[in-house]
Amino acid sequence: MTAGAWRTLRPLGAAVVSAAALLAGLGLAGAAAPPSAPNAAAPSSAAAPSNAAAPPSVDLVQLEAALAKGSFSEAIDRLEQWSDQGLVHPTLSFDRGVAYLGRAESSARKSSDLGQAAAAFEEALALDPSDEEARVVLARIRETISERRAKEHASGVVARPRLLRALSGLIGEEVWAGAGLLGSLLLGVGLAARLLSRSHEMRLGGAIVAVAGGVLLLLGGGMAGAGQHLRQHFAPAVVIVEEARLLDAEGRPVSGARGPSALDAAGDRVPEGSLVYIATSRGALVQVEWGDAMAWLNAAQVRKLATAEGG
Amino acid sequence: MKPMLMGWLLALGLLLGLPGRALSQTDLQLQVSSTEISVGETLEVQLDAMSQDDEAPTQPELVTPNGFEVRGPSIGTRQQVSISGFRMQRQTGISATWQLTATRAGVYSIGPASVDVGGRRQRAQAVQIRVLPEGQRSQQAQRRGRRSRRAPFDPFNPFGTDDPVDDLFDRLRGGGSPGFDRLPEAAPNLVPERALDPVAYLDARIDTQQALVGQQVTLSIYAHGAQGLFQEAAGSHEPSHPDFLAQRLVEDPSHQPVYQYTRDGQRWIAVKVRETALFPLRAGRLEIGPLEFGFLGRRYAARTAEGLRRSSRTLVVDVAEPPAEGRPPGYAGDVGDFRLDATVEPRRITAGGSIAVTARVQGTGRLPGALKLPEQAGVEWLEPTLRQDPSVVGTTVGGSRSFSYVVRLNRPGQLDLGRLSLSFYNPEARRYRVVPVELGQVTVDPDPAAAAAGTGPATPSGPQLSQLVKFRNQLPAYRPASHWVDGSAFWWSLGAAPACVLCAAGVGSLRRRLRRRWEQREQSQATHAQRALSEARQALARGELGIAVSGAERALYLAIEWATGLRARALLRSELEARLGAAGLSAELAREAAELLGQCGELRLAAGAVERAAVAGLHARVSRLSKRLLDKPPRAARAASADEARA
Fold it and tell me: Is there a common fold for B343-451 and B525-644?
């Protein structure tokens, strides 16, 4: 091929290589985390997501009658059995919370009822984020637990979420994804104006729009990817005992404050009803993210929430 | 002088009185005053924790099972100095003592006990004890009664009469060889296929390799010795089984039958030294650790207190959860085979009063810890009082456990108490069973005093959280939310718009360049030279020889201009060769070009007398030369290259 032909093909080659690199990079980023990737942190029997119609044996009217009669344990046993069978539905989670809450306030209460109720409402909210009733009652349960701890002279603990989770949760994963798509569109329009227009003003405007779009694309795409990573590799769970002591990897209690977000020495104990994220499990221990720190807890002290992804 | 003498005496005393071995960082020792007591008797548990570090052990804790009332701990501090050679060791520590009063008969594991040393908890091994029913005097207590009373922890008599390990062959002492011969023959299944050691070894075995969570696995350990009689030395390390609940079936090995057998002409004896019922707590491959055991006897290792040490092998059990299929609601993990009966009394009370419900579970397997209660509004079940009567049939654990509930009834009227039930999995039948007991009806009369005062049952103060939410009895269709990000299409679409624009821009640029190049090519001398040659060839084919010669001449002029930039037509023939050479053509090419142009001129002038062969030859030579000239880059490009080279 002559030198003239090389000179002719050079810009096309550069454009094709740039476009291919852009597409391949983004495509690989998506392919790296397949949508149905099993959760890495599954310490207990995972509940497969179920969007199918409920089995015929789900008779909620009968359970409602049992609750009205004061037979909370009967309703709880049945709802727990459905949960163990992998039936995931926000209404069933909500009803489980109602049953546990009822028993927690009855003479038949058990020590973990309030934590179990918090876990059930948190699960209902995770499955259906638009459920305002679950959100309100969950907040009230946590207030009740805080008041009870205050009466018992236990110190308050505020766990600040880690920065990535806080940013990712700021406007939601889907909104970040939308921002990334918008950035991509702006980048495309800006590049078109910059490369294809002959007007100086259009070329200048296109460059500005392309830079802004590129920044938005990187930010939105990056945060959407971070949200996906957190969702797929950390399983939400709720502490169901009065206090869960933070442990090290060998199961020994962690003494002293656990990190910069601990307000006082009580930072080595996770209060009942707290939301934690399970990263991995080993034997009877689970490694959790609580606040901005990672530590280990006894697996029996937390309840892993069923999610739409399963597990 | 006297203080110095006292100092030397003290140092000598420490040298002689304290062990010379190097102690570990923290030395923990858990001791009990007795391994066998009766219900109502008090047991003293003492934890000695000594640390070499500056940080003394703190916060002693003792794990105690249900069935004991615990008092304590009372904590005393200790300091100890030992001199070994020229090295002095100083230890600080505590001694914590608990008092445990037994309330129920059974076999229990006391401990582990732990202390906090430098922010880390260190644990001492648990100790097993046996609690006999009330009024049944323990053997140790009887022995203590016959002998003088000693302190519960006598460091100078570790192998004293209270030691649970007696000589296995006390009964045979004095009998000599005839006694040995009277030993029963070991059953074939007790004898391993080969001797694991020529002198002594331990053979550990479990009755099943696969079990369910909660199902009994029986661990049996036999000691085999080839050097005659032996007894168990003190300081055995019990098998570790952190994933099991354990109940010892053999409490005193000295009461076990002793067997003898012959292998390769050598006389062996075998005795069961441990038998434990283990109940798996979780699913998985669970390990049972080795027993470390000391054979003590004249022909084993009579001169050391530790005896001839041998360990059993580590065993593994594959444990699975009971099947999910058919599992009843509220199944609490009980495995075995049980019966349930219950009594209720009285059947008539006043509102606000209480009745007693006593339920009794009997059967085989680990006894259930709870029953499923028939809850209802106005009926308050208080925590039950448990009484149990464990039993062992063969190696199977079982017995009975009674649950005594006090049930407070607040609402007047005829009340159906409902059904008390127990669900369990029967591994032999391989199915779940639910055993219910109907409790029947109770008449609750109104409380006249409460009615007169106009007060009903106590109502909780303030609104309850459970009143904030209402049970949802409809199950709407639910489709889990999907995430864009989970599909790879989202990631491809992120790059699609910029990539499309870049591709379009590249294609547009290529198109423009190709068009420009094509236009340039259309206008170039090379193109015209090719066309002229083509026209000359066609004219030659038609026999128009003059046109063919003119075409060939024009092609040659254009090729020369392409290669050299010279317009050769404007030059004199005589100077043509020199100018072509000066323009960069080789001498050969310049000479041939000048010669061919001369021939072209001659043939053109002699138009009528030209032979076809001569014109064809000229055309062929012009074609070859033109091709050689056109293969060279145009003169403009050569000039640019030369400029670049100079630069």
Answer: no
